[in-house]
Amino acid sequence: MPRDNAGAGSDRAGSDALGNWLQLVAVISMPRFGLGKRDIRKLERDRDIDTIIELLYDEDDKVVFEAIEALTRIGDPRGIEALMTLVADLSTSDLIRAKAWLALDVGIERESKKRTDWK
């Protein structure tokens, strides 16, 4: 008896649609679970200041906090300027502005100790 192959094409189309849907869900979920984010520690080790500065405007506050901390540790003038801009931007959340302000304070204190530490 000949086999009816009419349903085979629709099964394949359904399988492709399910696969596409699962890929979409995975891509959408990646940032929520901390996947797919840049490794800020690696950027810090590589002293990739420009990319870390871009992360100051990420929608995930945790990423922004980590970027602020990385810029504070590096102490590069471009990072300090970016933190000052972040503090001055009134559209930035108060929490992020406060974190950037504290980071600037820590950076200034560290620099002043370097300049007055006579050994």
What would your notes on this structure say?
With 119 residues, the protein is mainly α. The chain folds into two domains: 1-36; 37-116, Leucine-rich Repeat Variant (Alpha Horseshoe). It has six helices and no strands. α3 packs antiparallel against α4 (61-74), α4 (61-74) runs parallel beside α6 and α5 packs antiparallel against α6. The chain is elongated, with a radius of gyration of 24 Å. The chain starts with 5 loop residues before the first helix and ends with a helix. 17% of the residues are buried.
Output the keywords.
single chain, 119 residues, mainly alpha, Leucine-rich Repeat Variant, 2 domains
Topology:
Blueprint: H1 6-29, H2 40-45, H3 49-55, H4 61-74, H5 77-88, H6 94-116
Helix pairs in contact: 3-4, 3-5, 4-6, 5-6
